[in-house]
Amino acid sequence: MIEYLIISLPVLTGIIMILCGLIIRNRPRGRVKNGVPAEALIIDFAVRTAYMKKIPYKAVSPVVEFQTPDGKKVNAVYPFFINEDYVRFRRGDIIKICYDRNNINRFHIENDGSKSNLSFILLFSGLFMIVADVIMFLKY
Q1: Are 28 and 112 in contact (CB under 8 A)?
Q2: What is the spatial distance between Cα 121 and Cα 55, in angstroms, rounded to a whole number?
Q3: Coil, strand or helix: which one is 3?
Q4: Does position 76 have pLDDT exceeding 70, yes or no?
Q5: Rounded to whole angstroms, what are the CA distances from 40 to 60, 70, 73, 102, 121?
Q6: What is the pLDDT of residue 104?
Q7: 36-52 and 73-77: which strand pairing?
Q8: Strand ranges (DSSP E) for 16-71?
Q9: What b/e readout covers 79-88, taking b as 16+ CB neighbours within 10 angstroms?
Q10: Are 14 and 126 in contact (CB under 8 A)?
Q11: Is 62 helix (H, G, I), strand (E, B) or coil?
Q12: Closest CA to 70 of 107, 99, 32, 34
């Protein structure tokens, strides 16, 4: 009986990790609930100095311009800054955003790449735990 518990515990942990990975797979950073989708033009980049292990580097965040359904033009800065070497966007790019109807300066960028790393790690780790446990069970 204890053998089955020892075997099933990593499988259950792997299943939980896979489910968590699937849940957060499509959840971008700073997601706005019940947001209004819009297309936005990147007009500039906000720049700030950030530090990693006391070494300064330049962090940037896109400044976007979009139009609300009632015709109002809005300029807003994305609240998440990243190293300028890893920015996928350029001035003049048109991106898809989703903004908060109660606070139009709050938005998230659809498919900004922030959601894939953790979900991939959880999915791969959970699958690895299950496969390794099954192989060990069959081998021994």
Answers
A1: yes
A2: 28
A3: helix
A4: yes
A5: 17, 15, 10, 18, 31
A6: 82
A7: unpaired
A8: 36-52, 55-67
A9: eebbeeeeee
A10: yes
A11: strand
A12: 99
Percent residues over pLDDT 90 in the chain: 29
Q: Are 46 and 61 in contact (CB under 8 A)?
A: yes
The reply to whether the predicted model has a pTM over 0.70 is no
Which ranges of the chain does DSSP label H, i.e. alpha helix? 2-24, 116-139
User: How far is C-alpha 108 from the chain's CA centre?
Assistant: 10
Q: Is the pLDDT of residue 28 over 60?
A: no
Q: What are the distances in angstroms from CA 62 to CA 29, 80, 82, 104, 114?
A: 14, 9, 10, 16, 15
Query: How far is residue 93's CA from residue 78's CA, in Å, rounded to a whole number?
Result: 14
Higher pLDDT, 61 or 23: 61
Q: Averaged over 37-56, what is the pLDDT?
A: 91
- Whether the per-residue pLDDT at 110 is higher than 60: the answer is yes
Q: Which residues pair with 59 in a beta bridge?
A: 48, 83
